[in-house]
Amino acid sequence: MVSQQRVLEKTAALKELMKTAGLDGLVITNNIDQFYILGFYFYAGETVLLLYEGGLICFTRQLYEAPLKKMFPFIEVIGQDKERTAAAVAAAARLGLKRVGFDAEKENYMAGSLFKASGFVETDSHISLLRQTKDEYELAILRDSCRIAYETYEYIKPLLKTGVSEFEVAAEMEKFMRIKGASATSFLTIIAFGENTANPHHETSHRKLKDNEAVLMDFGCIYNGYCSDITRSWWHGDKEPEEYTKIWHIVDKARQSGIAAEKPGVAAQKVDATARGIITDAGYGEYFTHRLGHGVGMEIHEEPCNDQTTNAVLKKGNVVTVEPGIYLPGKFGVRLEDTTVITDTGADILTRK
Known about the structure:
It contains 10 helices and 19 strands.
């Protein structure tokens, strides 16, 4: 559970962004943003938070009222099972708030329409901005989440035998991660054999592993609310084709070069270009068909992203993936991915022991 002090620190940081934006109130309806603020998980649509200079009001289901009041005595908790959005609008009027913001990018149509009709204003994703930079508390959890993912790779690789199905491998990996303390997977586990490895987002299937073919696994877990992401590729068997060996080493060089390019103050676009250049110069540019990486945190895809179009500049505390790949249709593909954190001087790999 997040401490009361952390909740106060996060709301204070958010209030500073509100002041800069000229807001005297902010409604928060996204459940992941709510988890970021309170460290308490609500399902989507269960809760509306109203933050203002004088405090924080939580409109939520009645079943959460008692535990929330016990955990956060400084928060006004109002338990009601219907009309929570309307209740937040009424509270803002009662408090005399003049300029209340809502995150239009994350709002559903019905609530957004009500907020807009009530005079609330569309605002930037202030919480998303805060979530981009992880502090030491968050990084400690992310390290554990990534360690579990890496240990899962170490556990499963020796167990792969000819005849096992993609589904069976995924099930065993997910069981292992849960035993290690994960609450869920970060996304649908991708296990690909043979020609399926040439599809970057292959859907795990009943396909069985044959002798002498490619293996690719892309997976991660959620641990204490934070995601991990790792991809590993290798050849199953003793007759590895020369071209597979070639592209594996090209992709690994691109991975290492991308991580080496990550530093505070460096444009994320440049990181993508550095790794992409390795693959392009080797003659496989057309077979690297996705961005180099993405931010990771409470969600598996966050900002900033290492891609070709972003304007993001990396900062200390950003957690981003580096995942170059080469995919040869109908044959095989290789992707190697690590989750990294930007440090004072460069980047550290989190997906390791």
